Hints:
Elements: H1 9-20, H2 32-55, H3 60-80, H4 83-99, E1 101-102, E2 116-117, H5 135-154, H6 156-159, H7 162-185, H8 196-210, H9 216-231, H10 240-243, E3 245-246, E4 254-255, H11 270-285, H12 292-306, E5 307-308, E6 315-316, H13 342-349, H14 357-375, E7 388-392, E8 413-418, E9 426-428, E10 439-441, E11 450-455, E12 460-461, E13 467-475, E14 481-486, E15 491-494, E16 505-510, E17 516-520, E18 525-530, E19 538-544, E20 555-564, E21 566-567
Antiparallel strand pairs: 1-2, 3-4, 5-6, 7-20, 8-11, 9-10, 10-20, 11-19, 12-21, 13-16, 13-20, 14-15, 14-19, 15-17, 17-18
Amino acid sequence: MKSTIGCLAASYVLGLISLLTAQDGPAPLRSAEEWERLCAERAQREHEQEYLPRSRSVNSWRFYNLAYGVDGNLAFFEATGNKEYLDRALTYAENCVASAQPSRSLPASQFKDDYLAWPATDHPQSRSIAGGEYPLYESYCWRYVTRTLRVMRQTPVIWADENYRRRYAALLDFTEKHIFDKWHSRGENHLYRSRTHMASHWAYIALELSLLTDDADRKAKCIQVYSKINRGTADNGPSLRSQLAPHRSDKSAYFWSSQWGSKDPPGQDVSHGNNMLSYVVEAHDLGVEFTKEDIAAFSALLLKVLWKPDGAGDRFAAFVDGSGKGNGWFNDGFIKLGRYNAEIQKRLESHTVGRGVQFYGNGALNAHRLLTARAQTPSSSDRATAGPLFREDWRETPAETPLSQSHVANTSLTVALYGTGAKEIKKSHHTQPADDPYYVWSGQASGSWAVTLRHLKGPLDLRGDTKVRWRSRQSGPRQLRLVLKLADGAWLVSEQSDAESQSWREYEFLIASQRWRKLDLAKIMEGAAITTPDLTRVEEIGFTDLMAGGGSAACSRLDWIEVYGRLNP
């Protein structure tokens, strides 16, 4: 049967329309449909000649590069909605699963246990890899398989399909048991790897799986894994965060080494640095650890240090300190910065290195997100600047349960509490330490809960360059999320969340980049994804972690909240 991906004439016309209508301000960008058109024949060829054979190879070393096929096709699906791309990514993963064998049946396995696995053979640079099991090859591919599962779960048209739900359930079960549980049970050294980029693969898998698994114990382990890799442990061990430092040649950019604890040049090689960037971008988009300031610093590194156009052609660095002669391969990480930065995206349009399905798929997804954000931004003629609209810092009064209107410091706001745990939400404060804030605390909540604020002057317009900032501190498996009530009575909860931290910290949500889910207000439970909510008149805005309290060890705390937007009475 002829591939429907090859039939793109209509999509091309739509792409041109999208391109022409995106000329408000910045230079017009190539549309997602045009990125797709440019790759149609190549994507089909790579599918048949490269990625399908890899997925059937029964060789985990060959699964390594299979990662690029999973990532590229999934990106195309997100950018275009064409299910054939999703089916390709799923088929690759399902072929791998079908060929997995019990570890104890593999003659050269180092483990000989009951988990399902694959031997690694034919490595071109190491004859010692001859039938053993290796976490690197499996994790390199499976980070994108877990992402595929999350995208399926959050896409309503996919989740409504019984066949896709069946495939999702089978693949999730395998991923939980024979990827995460397997390597976690075999020892922490298999997850907390000797190099930053290899540890990033497991942080990626653990983060995605923490959002998907229904097993509370596994979820806690996943959160522990990615939190430790992100921030280290209580005794401040090495972490991705501690590796980052201002760049010596440009303070707006980041420098880091692949070796834990090192600040020495030349730092991380750019090729493997892609792997860390792939995780950073995903964590940022899910609201975990990495902020817009981090993204800006990584973008500055790419634009000012690693990729320098000149009259004789582009010059690429081999290491993040800017040294060496690199090849300009950015497909597995740095390319994804284009979803936030139009200058990077514009450069990518003429970039000639690594042109394959991963390159074009991520180019399409970047374009889709950039152009969607532009379309959702009100024009300058019909909006005021989205400045600080209000701040709530809670009154400095003794601790009391439940939180009530008497605790609200801003006289322009009213507070509302929802859920079975609402009556146990506390306005808390301690005399020690001396700088302990006056804050909202969920530790005693007997059920799930939500707290919202309403402005007395009317609804809020949260389109465009609007944001929410707060100061909070979560403990245990608690992730604080935004809650909105729209003018039509619908309730939304953000996918992005503010996760566990060792101390109080400030956190920011950029509204234009949020992904939303329906919120069941009676149960305080998330539902189907909502792709294009109308944010012109938001009646209430607040926060929830979607869970009951678990004392000080498992709770959410919020010191203050600021909303940047416009009134729309």
